[in-house]
Amino acid sequence: MMPRLTLSQVTKRYDGVTALDAVDFTVAPGERVALLGHNGAGKSTLMKIVLGLIPATSGQIEVLGAAPGSQAAREGTAYLPENVAFHPALTGLEQIRLYLRLRGCDPAQAMGLLERVGLGEAARRRIGTYSKGMRQRVGLAQALIGQPRLLILDEPTSGLDPVSRREFYAILDGLAAEGAAILLSSHALTEVEARTDRIVILSKGRLMANDTLHALRRQAALPIRLQISARPGAADQVAAQLSGGRRNGVMVDLTCAHDEKLTRLGHIAALKGLIEDVEIIPPSLEDLYSHFSRRDDQ
Ligand SMILES: Nc1ncnc2c1ncn2[C@@H]1O[C@H](COP(=O)(O)OP(=O)(O)OP(=O)(O)O)[C@@H](O)[C@H]1O
């Protein structure tokens, strides 16, 4: 399938600063891609280039097979900025109707869009009375006008509570299932870990990683933690036999390389009379993120 978004060797220089340095990646239909990076890594610059708001210094960008900022690209692309501001005196329904009219679409679609983002019941209340999570959903309803095939979301869940975040991602899952390509930036690694298909890490404008979480784990080859619960009174013996560290009354911690995992599990299984349970804890996205974003400095 042709990617919805393709960046090839995209470089952006502001005077003296290289904000993007030969960045390559694609986003396919139905794919949810997380764009991660420290402050100043180049995420906003990348989004602005994709939206056609600023030009790249060099490289090629294709948005829905067209040039960024062209009519074809703009018609099929939705953008949700980090802080969406709406008119507080308007109701959600009025606000979305207004956007529909501005886009030359039928304002009667407004209720359907609001229901889609879970604002059906609040549609006739003033936006001034909405919570931050609800305002973010108005933003998403606005972004869904015209059935976009590519969504660019700038930290869409910052400031939302855990329940609102989950609900927001559930809406994105539905859109991706219908074939929308989604690129979202975030600083919240735990939620991205569970809710996206691929991870792109930028550091000082350079692409440090671009793969699934699974593949990044293999590439990084960070140690895996094995957490063993010993039978009552057996923790010292288990720790001694496995050369592991005792944590409290019953827990024994081990770390091992990825390719030692099965051997280590074999040793643990051989102590079966002494052991209640074993938990395998792979490196978290946070561990991977610091691994990949630091690679540059070495
Ligand atoms: N208009 C500009 N003129 C000069 N330098 C700029 C301009 N815009 C951004 N930069 C620089 O380019 C680099 C990348 O900035 P960018 O805003 O893209 O980062 P970011 O990853 O979006 O950061 P954040 O997480 O803080 O939003 C930074 O060093 C920034 O100072």
UniProtKB/TrEMBL annotation:
PROSITE patterns in alphabetical order: ABC_TRANSPORTER_1, ABC_TRANSPORTER_2
Give the domain of life. Answer: Bacteria
Give the ABC transporter domain ranges: 5-229
Identify the keywords attached in UniProt to this record, alphabetized.
Answer: ATP-binding, Hydrolase, Nucleotide-binding, Transport
- Under which EC number(s) is this enzyme classified? 3.6.3.-
PANTHER family associated with the record = ABC TRANSPORTER ATP-BINDING PROTEIN ALBC-RELATED (PTHR42939:SF1)
Put simply, this protein is called Putative ABC transporter ATP-binding protein YxlF
Q: Which organism is it from?
A: Roseovarius mucosus
